[in-house]
Structure formats: C-alpha cells, structure tokens
Design goal:
alpha/beta, 358 residues, binds pyridoxal-5'-phosphate, Alanine racemase, pyridoxal phosphate binding, alanine racemase activity
Length: 358
C-alpha cells in the first residue's frame, strides 16, 4: 500500500486569494510570487491556477525555464536578478525580466553581446540592507540602464520591506520615504509591496504588488492567520493512523521518552515525520486533527512517524485520517508552535509526499 501521506492543493483557494489581493490593491498589477516551487505548492500547478496574474516572480532562472516550458506566457521577473554574464542570453531567450540590484550586473549588461532586448527592474536598498542600490546611486544606475540599447521598456524601481508584517512599525514608513526620495522624478511605475504590505500598507501598493504568501492563504502577521484577512489556505497536509496503542500510565513516548502518559491512554501513530517536511521542532501540544477532532501531538516528531494523544478521540482506529494543517487547522498555528513562519513549513514538504489537486 502507498504511504498515505499527502498534500492536497486547493486550486479554488489560490484563485480566491488572488481575487482578494486584487480587491485590496485594485489599481496595481499583480506579480504572483511563485519562487521555491510556489512556496512548496508546486510551481507549474500554481502558475496555471493563477493564470489571471499579470506576471510571475521567481528567484531562480531554472524556475523561469520551467514556467516557459509549461506554456506560461505572462511576464516573469527574476526577483533577485541574474548571477553571471552567461545568464543574459538565457534571459533574452526566455524573455524574462530581471531585477538589477548591483553594479556588477550593470557592468555585465554593458559588456553583453547585442541580442534580444531585456526589461530591467531597478532594486533600491531602502533600509533592509539585503539587495539593492544605495539610494544615492539610484539615479546613476537608472541612467546607465536607460542608455543601453539592449534594455527596453520602463525601468521599474522596486524595494523590499523588512518589517511590513508589523502594521505599526515605523521602519516601513522610513523605507517608503527613502524610496520616494531616491526615485522622485523617474518616470514610470513602482513596485514595493509584498503580501503584508498589500494587507496592511495601502500607501505602498503603487503600480505593481508582489504577493507570495497571501496567495497561498498564509499570514506572517504575528498572532493572525490568513483567514483573518479573508484568505483561504491552499494546502492540506494529511496522513492516516497506522497504529493505535494502549499505553499504561507512566509510559514514555518516542525518542528520549520526553512525554510521559499521565494515565492509561490510547496513543495513535501517524505516518508523517520530519522526513516528509513536518517540523521536528513542533513540541508536544502542537494541534492535529484525527477524524476531524482536535487533539495534540505527544513525544518527539521522528523521521517517518509522529505520536498522537487519542484520549479525546475514542473512536480513532488504524486508518483514521489525520490532518496536520489545512482549512480546518491553520498552518500558522503549527508554525507558531514550532518557532517558525508558515512559509517555511509549506516550503519544506519533501518529495515523498504525494501531491494532488482539489
Ligand atoms: N518580493 C520579493 C523581492 C521577495 O523576496 C518576496 C519574498 O520574500 C516577495 C516579494 C513576496 O513576499 P511575501 O511572500 O511575504 O508576500
């Protein structure tokens, strides 16, 4: 029998979430961010589901290749830019736009052999200090790109926020101010907003928004779930019980015996572990659903298995469905328990998990 561990991707939820984003930013084009295999939901699947997006954002040229091979014809933006001169002919061939964030990329473009034109987005470091030109160099970088025969169309200045998930954090206001100063007078559109800025910073919407997590129904705003913003989870991670054991009071569960049974009790064993991408850091008490009933994992998560408190689910038996996250159990709750964010969990699902669409 096949391992019962599966990830179901909810195509309607992806479309619903795109519509929610459009409703919040009605005057912006949407660049659907599908990097990291569509945040673990499947690159081609997500791009097909989101055919209504205006463009797609990826982090790797190989992802752009996959999208073109799948027949995706919308503009694609390489969010972190290209790495080496040999990438330039590939960008041209695939008709992929690139972010330009560093003087070394300007030089590579200036020295490139003539070929099909490329569209460039100009990344400004407004205070996150990860990628981007310093504000005082932005005009010069813009002028150098504009002067290139091989660069066509609008050069769109873009920015990335460090703290937009905190709706009262003044760092975002400061980044907005620095961006406005650095780009004032440059004609054409702008792109600033990630998901949290789409949800909480309307002044940052501009001409192009770049949501990722929100498309998948996830929130990174502490203490919230996607549902709080009208979003629907796009993934259900599920498995089944493969054993139910009756353990005596005082019995210790799993590796290192970290959890001790306070009474005689039924313990379920589910066919999922960190080898499937479920976080090993999830502690006892992390919620799971068995037969649709809320209960908790107990003991340490192991590679292929986890153990579950079945005291509240007396009818549970071998074969009972177990939901790790999904519409009835927000992935944000699991992430919070495991000390991470929801994005990391969906990105971590491994290849042995069977994917399907619903
Ligand atoms: N834009 C850029 C440049 C990014 O790196 C990312 C992801 O980190 C996004 C947009 C999307 O962010 P989020 O998934 O929080 O919407």
């Amino acid at each position: 029998m096949a391992r019962p561990t599966s990830a179901t991707i909810h195509i309607d939820a992806l479309r619903h979430n795109l519509a929610q984003i459009r409703a919040r930013a009605p005057n912006s084009g949407v660049i659907a961010v599908v990097k990291a295999d569509g945040y673990g939901h499947g690159l081609e699947r997500v791009a097909r589901a989101l055919s209504g997006a205006d463009a797609f954002g990826v982090a790797a040229l190989s992802d752009a290749e996959r999208l073109r091979a799948a027949g995706i014809s919308q503009p694609i933006l390489l969010l972190s830019g290209f790495d080496e001169a040999a990438d330039i002919p590939r960008l041209r061939q695939l008709q992929v736009d690139t972010a330009v964030h560093h003087v070394s990329q300007l030089e590579m473009l200036e020295q490139a052999e003539p070929g099909e034109p490329i569209r460039c987005w100009l990344k400004v470091d407004t205070g996150m200090h990860r990628l981007g030109f310093p504000p005082e160099f932005v005009r010069q970088a813009h002028a150098r790109l504009s002067a290139l025969a091989g660069v066509v169309g609008e050069i769109v200045p873009m920015n990335h926020f460090a703290s937009s998930d905190e709706f009262d954090n003044p760092q975002t206001l400061e980044q907005l101010r620095v961006f406005a100063d650095a780009t004032s007078g440059l004609h054409g559109g702008r792109s600033l907003a990630n998901s949290a800025a789409v949800l909480g910073w309307p002044d940052a919407h501009a001409q192009w928004v770049r949501p990722g997590g929100a498309l998948y129904g996830m929130s990174v705003v502490a203490g919230t779930t996607g549902a709080d913003f009208g979003l629907r989870p796009a993934m259900t991670l599920a498995t089944r019980l493969i054993a139910v054991n009756h353990v005596k009071k005082g019995g210790r569960i799993g590796y290192a015996g970290t959890w001790e049974c306070p009474e005689d009790m039924p313990v379920g064993v589910a066919a999922i572990g960190y080898g499937d991408g479920y976080p090993r850091a999830a502690p006892a008490g992390t919620p799971v659903l068995v037969d649709g009933v809320g209960t908790q994992l107990i003991g340490r998560v192991s590679m292929d298995l986890m153990t579950i408190d079945l005291r509240g689910v007396p009818a549970a038996k071998v074969g009972s469905p177990v939901v790790l996250w999904g519409p009835e159990l927000p992935v944000e709750r699991i992430a919070e328990a495991a000390g991470t964010i929801a994005y990391e969990l969906t990105c971590s699902i491994t290849r042995r998990v069977r994917f399907s669409e619903a």
